[in-house]
């Protein structure tokens, strides 16, 4: 699928690649949630490459957003395994704790 998406991209059709990038970034973000720091480093490297690919082509970025990728997804991918990720996770846990108190 990736080979066909890249061929389509080369021919001007960004949709197949946008779908793959959308799914790939979301999957990396989910996988990073329960990984060790070393594993997160590998995931961050992959995520960074995908984010850079999107950032280099504004048209591709529009298609990826149409496929459902949000700016938050992109930021989360860039921050896998960093202090920003830890802060975000702590904030989410506090929010979940407050919600469960209701």
Report the order of strands and helices.
HHHHHH
Alpha carbon gap, first and last residue: 46 Å
Number of strands: 0
Stretches with pLDDT under 50, minimum 5 residues: none
Biggest sheet architecture: none
Shape: elongated
Q: Percent of residues in helical segments?
A: over 70%
Structure classification: mainly alpha
* Radius of gyration over all CA atoms, rounded: 15 Å
Quaternary organisation of the protein chains: single chain
Number of helices: 6
Task: Please tell me about this protein's structure.
This protein has 102 residues and is mostly helical. Helices cover 80% and strands 0% of the residues. The protein contains 6 helices and no strands.
Brief rundown of the structure:
This protein is mainly alpha-helical and 102 residues long. It has six helices and no strands.
What are the main properties of this structure?
mainly alpha; 6 helices
């Amino acid at each position: 699928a990736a080979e066909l998406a890249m061929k389509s991209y080369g021919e001007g059709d960004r949709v197949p690649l946008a779908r793959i990038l959308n799914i790939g970034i979301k999957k990396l973000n989910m996988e990073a949630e329960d990984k060790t720091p070393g594993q997160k480093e590998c995931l961050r490297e992959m995520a960074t490459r995908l984010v850079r690919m999107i950032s280099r082509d504004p048209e591709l970025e529009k298609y990826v957003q149409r496929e459902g990728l949000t700016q938050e997804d992109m930021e989360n991918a860039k921050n896998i395994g960093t202090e920003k990720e830890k802060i975000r996770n702590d904030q989410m846990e506090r929010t979940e704790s407050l919600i469960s108190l209701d």
